Amino acid sequence: MDTVVKTSTRLPDGTSVSTPAEASIKHTIRPTREEAEAAVRTLLRWAGENPGREGLVDTPKRVVKAYEEFFQGYNQDAEDVLERVFEEVDGYDDMVLVKDIPFASHCEHHMVPFVGTAHVAYYPNGGVVGLSKLARVVDVFARRLQTQETMTAQIADAIEQSLKPFGVAVLVEAEHMCMSMRGVLKQGSSTVTSRFSGRFRDPAEQARFFTMVRGLR
Ligand SMILES: Nc1nc2c(ncn2[C@@H]2O[C@H](COP(=O)(O)OP(=O)(O)OP(=O)(O)O)[C@@H](O)[C@H]2O)c(=O)[nH]1
Ligand SMILES: [Zn+2]
């Protein structure tokens, strides 16, 4: 008879599950709205507040609703956003750049906002996408928890995979509230991340991209 070896994984919430698959399912099942609101009340108590006082009674509801907006990206798919390609562009084959796209995200380390702008460019390989879709792709990833580096890479990779362009450039500049409101307390510092693929790996193309982002204001 086969012996079934069962390993047990202890989760951060103190419970145990038998397999990694079970662990991953457990962590992706959303709590109920009531459970989420109860968690907000716990954090209010942790902050030293009385969640029962008049001004705070509806706060858990509002916070949970706000989370639905902040983290909407988990319900969205970049592939769907970039699905519609316009082929009729009369041979346009130069860079397409949408710059100064404002975004607000949350860092996965502190769940505190980082806020800034993204600049997204690509060299079309035949068709182009609607310009708003590039801004929408930024939001699909911004409205999740991650690092700025991951967000930058995810935006570029999604465009790469959907459009198969001759190159993608993504430049993101942001201020992290976890560096300005707490911790090291460096207000005004900004973090710049970039991802270049295809033609944009050429330094001359990168220079042109930077000139278009910075120079043509
Ligand atoms: N690379 C990267 N780091 C980030 C990002 N957002 C926040 N961080 C950093 O994540 C790090 C977490 O460091 P830890 O030492 O684990 O946490 P901490 O004690 O809160 O760190 P301090 O912020 O230095 O007080 C900090 O240095 C943050 O600045 C991001 O998008 N990318
Ligand atoms: Zn942080």
Question: How many helices does DSSP assign?
Answer: 8
Q: Please tell me what the overall shape is.
A: elongated
- Which small compounds were modeled alongside the protein? guanosine-5'-triphosphate, zinc ion
Q: Please name the CATH architecture of the largest domain.
A: 2-Layer Sandwich
Class derived from helix and strand content:
alpha+beta
**Averaged pLDDT, please?**
91
Provide an overview of this structure.
- The chain is of the alpha+beta class and 217 residues long.
- It folds into 2 domains: 9-72, GTP Cyclohydrolase I, Chain A, domain 1 (Orthogonal Bundle); 78-214, GTP Cyclohydrolase I, domain 2, CATH 3.30.1130.
- Helix content is 38%, strand content 23%.
- The chain is built from 8 helices and 9 strands.
- The protein has helices at residues 20-28, 33-46, 59-70, 78-81, 131-142, 148-163, 177-180, 203-214; strands at 9-10, 16-17, 85-86, 96-107, 113-123, 128-129, 145-146, 167-176, 191-196.
- The strands form 3 sheets. The protein has a 5-stranded mixed sheet with strand order 7-4-5-8-9. A two-stranded antiparallel sheet has the order 1-2. A two-stranded antiparallel sheet has the order 3-6.
- The radius of gyration is 22 Å and the shape is elongated.
- The structure holds guanosine-5'-triphosphate and zinc ion (ZN).
- Zinc ion binds at residues 107, 109-110, 112, 176, 178.
- Guanosine-5'-triphosphate binds at residues 107, 109, 147-149, 176, 178-179, 183-184.
